[in-house]
Amino acid sequence: MLAMTGACMVLAAGFGLVAMAMGLRIRCQEGDSLRGQTTSAMLFLSGLLLLIALTGYTVKNAWKQDVFFSWSYFSGWLAFPFSILAGFCFLLADMIVQSTEAISGFPVCL
Q1: pLDDT tens per residue, range 21-71
Q2: Which residue ranges run through the membrane (predicted)?
Q3: Stretch (H or E) spanning 67
């Protein structure tokens, strides 16, 4: 069980770092919307892997007599909602960019 928890944490960290790099690349360069959707999916996957890892670790250690959860455990639970929130933000930003690109071709008289 501990190996599965560690593997999920490492994968979550890897997906988070790759998503961050993709987000920075999107920010620096104009890109197609597929990259924004992929970044959003990677952040959601990172959040799911964090949830699996931290739930597995909690279930394994919750009923032990002398349990101490360190700062890294709480940092993991803090990273979980931020990962999901970042995925929603990228998804929303991608939808806004797509709608702006779709409207830009129409003549608008203000």
Answers
A1: 988 888 777 656 567 888 899 999 999 999 999 999 888 887 888 888 888
A2: 39-59, 71-93
A3: none
**In a domain? residue 4:** no
Determine contact, residues 44/92, Cβ cutoff 8 Å.
Answer: no
Task: Report the distance separating Cα 56 and Cα 81, nearest Å.
Answer: 17
Domain that holds residue 81: 33-55+70-101
E strand segments, the chain: none
Please indicate, yes or no, if residue 7 is contained in any of the structural domains.
no
Number of domains making up the chain: 1
Q: Tell whether 63 is covered by a domain.
A: no
Summarize pLDDT for 73-109 with one digit per residue, the tens: 899 999 999 999 999 998 898 888 777 766 666 666 5
83 token code pair: 């990962």
Token pair for 37: 């959707």
Q: What residue type is assigned to position 36 of the chain?
A: G
